Amino acid sequence: MEIRSTTDQDLDVFVDTVHAAFGRFPETPADGGGLWWSALEMDRGLLAVTADGRPVGTAAAYSFELTLPGEAIVPAAGVSAVGVLPSHRRQGVLSALMRYQLTELRARGEFLSVLLASEARIYGRFGYGPATCTQRLTVQRHQASFARPRGTADAPDTGSVELLRRAECGVILEEVYDRYRRAQPGALSRPHRWWASGAGQPPVTPAPRYVAVHRDAGGVPDGYASYSLGESGTLTVDETIATDDAVSTALARFVLDHDLVTQVVFKHVSPDHPLRWQLADFRAGQMTDDDWLWVRLLDVPRALTARGWFTDGELVLDVDDPFLGEHGRYLLTVRDSKAECVPTDRDPDLSLDVRDLGSVYLGGTAPSTLVRAGHIRAHRSGAATVADALFRAERAPHCLHWF
């Protein structure tokens, strides 16, 4: 078997192979929707090919930016379209693809990769750890009253909401999302080519949607909610983007006040979103949780010095990377919001797998939680407490982008 990089000429073969791996057939554009593979970067794709030239596996990567705690924005490879034909599974094809890809990412100078896991059991063994969660919030319309009447909230809204169709506001969506993601830990960029080609899921794809666009007092767009209403009376919000809590509340009130609706489903809500607490009936909002963004560190010192920090402190981290056969011990020192991370032979405070370092990296998982779970080993009393204080973020990391 050979693993090789793809070119633009391999697009059809690549698309056919990854669809076959998942037992599906390539869809065709419908109702104005885009094709997800139109955003593929074919110079970043991989094909696993048998000796007689048959493609049996695929992997791809997108060029994204990831917002870290402290509003640091860094390059990140978005791993996607990973699949192996059913006829060639459990023969080492996937491991070979992932090892080849990680080597390529490092050769490009990248120190972080991220993905969305189709199955939670697969990617931990390749060094990826779940780093952000998203929640699905369902609110019954008859229980949707707010605890505080409109206009009495702590942060009163001075703007307005305008209803547009998706086809009318593509530029607005792109600009507002870009402002939002630059300040939100865990958020990924949406390159212009995604919006231009309609790749991905609504509202990136131009599939028919209504969009509630919020404007500030000066008329500048600063938030939106993309939604559709089904025949059953369920109003589904693809995503709500807001630059502050007042905007978020105004958009939530807008969709919850919609006529001829039995329930409103918010597909992607941050774990620290205040909406449930704003409702008069706390139980009116039913939550389901799901992991979303998985993070993999390719260069531990570069990754740890790239993000912002909010507490001074010091830790010795003993990091094992079994998939790549690597091991390192690092002294992490944080002073005045900046970190230094260097190799050391000092006794470790914490021993952990690189996948667990990925899980705590964005601040969404407390190191002490993984100590209690048996993933991380603390070698001295108080080490987990120090790690919790160091790795926290200014707010819960959240990622909306599908890729």
Features:
403 residues, Aminopeptidase, Nonspecific Lipid-transfer Protein, Chain A, seven-stranded mixed sheet, 10 helices, 19 strands, 22% helix, 32% strand, Eis_dom, aminoglycoside N-acetyltransferase activity, transferase, acyltransferase
In CATH, the architecture of the largest domain is 3-Layer(aba) Sandwich
Query: Remind me, CATH topology of the largest domain?
Result: Aminopeptidase
- Beta-strand proportion: 25-35%
Assembly of the depicted chains:
single chain
Spatial extent as radius of gyration: 22 Å
**Contiguous helical run count:** 10
Query: Which consecutive residue ranges, at least 5 long each, have pLDDT under 50?
Result: none
Share in helix: 10-25%
* CATH hierarchy, class of the largest domain: Alpha Beta
Largest sheet: 7 strands, mixed
Total number of β-strand segments? 19
In total, how many domains does the architecture comprise? Answer: 3
Structural class: alpha+beta
Instruction: Name the strands of the widest sheet in spatial order.
Output: 1-2-3-4-5-14-6
Euclidean distance between termini CA atoms? 28 Å
CATH superfamily of the largest domain: Gcn5-related N-acetyltransferase (GNAT)
Average pLDDT reading: 95
Sum up the overall morphology in one term: globular
Order of helices and strands: EHEEEHEEEEHHEEEHEHEEHEEEEHHEH
